[in-house]
Every structure is written in C-alpha cells, then in structure tokens.
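Hello, quick one for you while I still have it in my head. Could you read through the record and tell me how the tokens relate to the sequence? No rush at all, and the record is pasted right below.
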Amino acid sequence: SEWTGIPLAILLDQITPDPKATWVIAEGADAAAMNVSLPLAKLMDDAIVALYQNGERLRPEHGYPLRLIVPGWEGVLNVKWLR
C-alpha cells in the first residue's frame, strides 16, 4: 500500500517530548486495546501518521481516522485507530 500522511516527527516537535524520553507508547482505540512501545529515534526518523491509503481516505477497517505507519518494521506495529 501507498500511505500518505503527516511525519510523526512534526507532531512530536509540537509537544516537545521529555528530553530524557527514549520510547513512546502508541495506542489504538480498538476493542483489543492494542498498544506497542517503539523507540522515539525510529519514530522521529521516518514514521508517519497516515490519513490516506492508496490515494483514498483511510477506511474504518484500515484504521480510520489515523494509523501509525512504521516503515521497515513488522506490520503489527502499524497501530490502527491511533489515539
């Protein structure tokens, strides 16, 4: 799939993470309460908060309204329904 969205680094820069932080918890709003811990350095490097998949707005089954995309890492880390 081709994912389009906002680089997570831009959003994290807006909130000024604790300078001592090295990990982030990404949490999904689904019934399974999916959450994963990810290195902050990786998220700042190339992770995006996806709004579109293959040129179309994300559909509910693919994580609408927001989905975390972590390029090069296992798909299970691409948290759907990000909150």
Remarks:
- The mean pLDDT is 94.
